[in-house]
Specification:
592 residues; five-stranded mixed beta barrel; globular; alpha+beta
Length: 592
């Protein structure tokens, strides 16, 4: 017999009854039923029930074991009585009568339980992550992640893509986040960078003549953490294609992503229609460039109905340049109680409140009337025009926010989501996707400077000619894929012409010399015949988070950092040794 096991803890069934077997695993839990001891023995594959009575030669040893000890058990397979069958377990029809037990590894008192789904502080969970990962839910999440990666890899090969690896140690590149720098021992005073993405390398692969590339790529960004983003590193499905337009990329990617969600969440509906929504329209209709389309509500501009009206707050606001009033329709939200609840929501978001109108049966029985403070101020003619524009009726409501869109649209988007949830309008058990297209190439910084709003390597729509006008009116062949309120994919058709690249960076404040210095390899390559090319990247961690129905990305990462970008298990970041600093010719400046 094998030194440790003849079967795994998920392998035994009634066909093995009467056989002598050897199992090894962790003691999931021990139960004492008055002279009969039961152990739920767990390994990577599943759980097998082991029992021993006072006649068993293993009884005395089994009495000593505790939860999470690693043990080896010899025994005989028995069929369970029909009344004791556990249909939830693959091994639920049998149990193993123990004849021998060997302790392979004892466990101290546990800092957190493995059995059950008890919530523990994140600090404890991350400090003892190896124990946390033994819990059924996290073990399941990690296996889901592993299977997702395998599925993606196979799907990309089936689509005619080839897998290539790109460097981990490279040069710094401005891609929207801070770099992690790595000091060079051989070149004192100089630094490598961990790649924020394989962006330049995958473009160079296209220039080198390889037509379809993909990689399960690690990426490193020194970012502030949030629930759907790791603060240090993450993995993405990285894709690039030659001789393609935007629609070619969409056509190649959709079956891969759609197949992924259909395979791993068959209990949910995966929408097959993926609409194209312009970036500006997404902000107008949904208050976000990653809209949740499970919610059918679309916001609309209703400024004209308030201009010169009796509602002085909005009327005066509209006298200022660049301001507007937007309405959030709320079908079936036509009660003062609901309107007050949403007003309180707006106040929690930092706003004074939200104006509202709701339509109800007139008290005199004459039909429908508009109610609420706004309705009284602007009169029946304007409220009726608003109702008709929004397509609302009896029992419905609308909420209103005003000002410069960039100041309020994010809150409006959150209010839209809240209204959809509260009124039961949003779908559940559904994945809805949308391509967000026509991103602005540039934006104004808080200091009033022009900078790239997204990926600096995207091709401007209209090419070089478009860059000769107002930069803020230039759109890029840049696109994102939104899914249920999350950005799942980001990509673009690349700028492959040196003269357009120089001009694009010049508008963002980078002289040609700086472009040559930072992107010399890519600029040089483009001067030797670069094909039109484009691609995208999907965040694997975020995709698994959606598939696992988790709200926090740390639940699907094997060894995540905490919210302060610390590895509590391994003790990173740590202070370097003086010898290391001397070898690298570095000195740490004490914090003030």
């Amino acid at each position: 017999m094998h030194a440790y096991r003849s079967h795994t803890c998920a392998a035994l069934n009634t066909a093995h009854v009467g056989q002598t077997v050897r199992l090894s695993g962790w003691v999931h839990r021990v139960r004492d039923h008055g002279g009969v001891l039961f152990i739920d023995l767990r390994d990577h594959y599943g759980i097998t029930q082991v029992l021993a009575d006072s006649d068993s030669p293993a009884f005395a040893e089994i009495e000593k074991v505790r939860s999470e000890w690693v043990v080896q058990i010899d025994g005989r397979v028995k069929a369970r009585d029909a009344a004791l069958v556990n249909p939830k377990l693959p091994t639920g029809e049998i149990e193993v009568y123990a004849t021998g037990l060997k302790v392979l590894g004892e466990a101290q008192e546990l800092p957190l339980p493995v059995f059950g789904d008890v919530e523990y502080p994140e600090e404890t969970r991350l400090t003892y992550r190896f124990l946390d990962l033994r819990r059924e839910k996290l073990h399941k999440n990690m296996m889901l992640r592993s299977n997702v990666v395998r599925h993606l890899r196979n799907a990309m090969w089936d689509q005619g893509f080839n897998e290539f690896q790109t460097p981990i140690i490279t040069a710094s590149s401005p891609e929207g986040a801070r770099d992690f720098l790595v000091p060079s021992r051989l070149h004192p005073g100089k630094f490598y960078a961990l790649p924020q993405a394989p962006q330049q390398f995958k473009q160079l692969i296209m220039v080198a003549g390889f037509d379809r590339y993909f990689q399960i790529a690690p990426c490193f960004r020194d970012e502030d953490p949030r629930a759907d983003r790791s603060p240090t590193d993450f993995y993405q499905l990285d894709v690039e294609m030659s001789f393609v337009e935007q629609e070619d990329v969409f056509a190649a990617v959709q079956p891969v992503i759609q197949g992924l969600f259909e395979k791993f969440r068959p209990d949910c509906k995966t929408a097959t229609d993926w609409p194209r929504i312009r970036y500006n329209d997404a902000l107008l209709w949904y208050g976000s460039d990653k809209p949740d389309l499970r919610n059918p509500i679309k916001m609309q501009v209703v400024s004209e109905h308030f201009r010169g009206s009796g509602f002085a707050v909005f009327a005066k606001l509209l006298e200022q340049e660049g301001t507007e009033i937007r309405a959030i329709p709320a079908p079936k939200g036509g009660s003062r109680k609901f309107c007050d609840r949403m007003n309180a929501f707006a106040q929690k978001e930092g706003l004074p409140g939200m104006g509202y109108i709701f339509w109800r049966e007139a008290e005199d029985g004459s039909g429908m009337e508009a109610a609420g403070p706004l309705a009284k101020n602007i009169g029946p003619e304007r409220t009726e025009a608003i109702r008709q524009q929004l397509g609302l009726g009896m029992g419905d409501a609308a909420f209103f926010l005003g000002g410069k869109p960039e100041a309020f649209q994010a809150v409006a988007g959150r209010a839209r989501n809240e209204i959809g949830r509260e009124l039961g309008l949003s779908e559940t058990d559904t994945f809805r996707f949308a391509w967000i297209v026509d991103f602005p190439m540039y934006e104004k910084t808080d200091e009033g400077k022009i900078d790239f709003s997204h990926n600096p390597f995207s091709m401007p729509q209209g090419g070089l000619e478009a860059l000769n006008g107002d930069p803020l009116q230039v759109y890029a062949y840049q696109y994102d894929l939104a899914c249920n309120g999350y950005e799942l994919i980001s990509g673009g058709i690349r700028n492959h012409k040196p003269e357009i690249m120089y001009k694009a960076f010049e508008l963002a404040g980078y002289p040609n010399s700086e472009v040559d210095k930072r992107f010399g390899g890519m600029v040089k390559a483009f001067k030797y015949g670069a094909p039109p090319h484009g691609g995208c990247a999907m965040g694997i961690d975020r995709a698994v988070m959606l598939l696992a129905d988790e709200m926090n990305i740390r639940e699907v990462i094997m060894f995540p950092m905490n919210q302060r970008a610390e590895d509590l298990l391994m003790g990173a970041p740590s202070e370097p040794l003086n010898e290391q600093l001397r070898e690298l010719r570095l000195r740490v400046i004490p914090k003030d």
